[in-house]
Amino acid sequence: MAHFNVSPRTFFAIIALIGLSACASISAVGPGPVEIGKSYRISTGEVWSKYPPQSRTNTAATMTIDGTILNTLSFVDGLKPGESIIYTSDRDKLIPKYRADMSASELVDFVLDSYSAQGLANGKMTDLRPEKFGTLDGYRFDFTGAYKSGLELSGTGKIAQQGDNLHIIIFYAPSEYYYGLRKDEVDGILASVSLL
Amino acid sequence: MLNRFKPVLFRYPLRLALLALGSTALMSCVSTDVPPIEAQAAPDDATDEGGIWYVTDKVEKDLQTSAIVERDPALNDYVSTVACRVTGPEYCKDLRVYIVKQPYFNASMAPNGMMQVWTGLLLRAENEDQLAYVLGHEFAHYRQRHSLKQWRQAKNMSNASLIFSVGAAAAGAGAAGVLGQAAALARLYGFSREAERESDDLGFDFFVAAGYAPGEAARTWEYLIAEAAESSSRRKRKSVARASVFATHPVTTERVENLQAKAAALPAGTPRREAFLAVTKPFLQQWLEQDLTLRDFGSSLFLTNTLIEDGDALGVLYFHRAEIYRLRRADGDNDLALADYQTASQYDDAPPENWRQMGDALAKAGKTDEAKTAWATYLEKAPDAPDRLLIQSYLDPDGA
Description:
The complex is a heterodimer of chains A (196) and B (400). Chain A has a single domain, classed as Protein Transport Mog1p, Chain A (3-Layer(aba) Sandwich), CATH 3.40.1000. Chain A contains three helices and eleven strands. Chain A has helices at residues 8-21, 104-117, 178-191, and strands spanning 27-29, 32-36, 40-44, 48-51, 61-64, 72-79, 121-133, 136-146, 152-162, 165-174, 194-195. Chain A has an eight-stranded antiparallel beta sheet with strand order 1-4-5-6-10-9-8-7, sandwiched between helices. A three-stranded antiparallel beta sheet of chain A has the order 2-3-11. Chain A is globular and about 40 Å long. Chain B has 400 residues and is mainly α. In chain B, 64% of the residues lie in helices and 4% in strands. In chain B, strands 1-2-4-3 form a four-stranded mixed beta sheet, sandwiched between helices. In chain B, helix 3 packs parallel to helix 9 (160-173), helix 3 (48-64) runs antiparallel to helix 10 (178-186) and helix 11 (193-209) packs parallel to helix 14. The radius of gyration of chain B is 24 Å and the shape is elongated. The interface between A and B is large, with 37 and 34 residues.
């Protein structure tokens, strides 16, 4: 899910490779409803590129309009207790894992600590408030941070537990220009969540 | 390997050609018997050492704009001053210190004079003397040109292509980011046992000459070994102090005993603690939070208990120990966390978040009224808290 430790140059190269070798796996979605995994649906106001699920990071989908280095919207559908949203091939590496009894602030810490473990620098929650996730009691949060290269980023997201499982939607983009450019669209998407 | 190599060839053809030429010229068998580098000296571009410097210059350029560099002027001035004390005024002009916001115990000095001091080291050093010893040790690697020796030894063993690929990665061709580059570069610092022993001895001499307390050198490594033994990471426990990036400098009992013996022959001296604490204390909570992102609860507990024994910043430290218990979630940890939140609340330096988490822990224990009192105190202490609306919903569920 998180990939802050990749330099922009490398990231563009990866995206180019993906584009050349696996065009069929990326689809254009919206404007309109988009189903995320098996649990919920969102609605977009614009056309987004949607990447397929990544089982290693338990990511149900990743979407972008301008390229993932300029804006990334990621979705987790029903993360189970003990699971993580980051991948490491190092079995001995200690990484944040989801627990069903986490409080609201702990859930956000879990998300941001996971991103920090993947390279987010100076990650800081700047707002946390109750907000419905469809019919579920959920939480909305904002955060700031930086890519290790020094580029500052802003983000927002929404989390909710359904039973013991956790849904996460998280958006981030460079603070300068790109975050503001898609903020209204993302606010609309976050407000559009409905459970399947 | 070739695909890593190619972009660098396109981008830096002259320098890499020079490095390759230098390497080819030395192909038969290069001398690893190199004298110490002179102060304010730089190698010729047309040498293998010039190529190594070029690669490290590129890494340094990336580091200079990185978000992981701590730019606080007072902290940077202090650490640079300590570094210059151990290097002496002439070599001081050759070094550039970067404080890197990473929670591991680590420091390094690249062949071109770029010195990295990671915040995990500053968090764990008990005093200026321990910091000075590590910096002296790193300076010794630089002065004795151990990277160049390592490079040439590798070449003589026909492993140059491996090392060169490291150089290419460090130059930006690999998939690594700034830290990845540094980690790749660190393979150049994977010094031999002899080089480590030499740096221990020379670093010790530099730091004693600068007036530091001799016994603190061994204590630095002793602490690392003790913390690693308590790690939650099985690999770290097994390898004892080899699990951090400081694996490039494996710490052994033999090395500790060597430093203890050298210190025993000298007057004890008095460690410099006051100035060190004054400059590092404002960062204590931030560095502890970074340490927790590693989720190595065993190491974190050992570190925090050690700092609590020192008796400074107890509000911050009891809060932090409570946070370790909260995140670890072993049986009984909520009770341990609650006790530490309550202890922290008796100290003026406890952060406002202490009361928020104390409220959560009380709520988990079924003590709703006490939880509300703690949450209310949190909002009093942090009127601009980012989660104010959430906490207000706890205090007044009907009004939310």
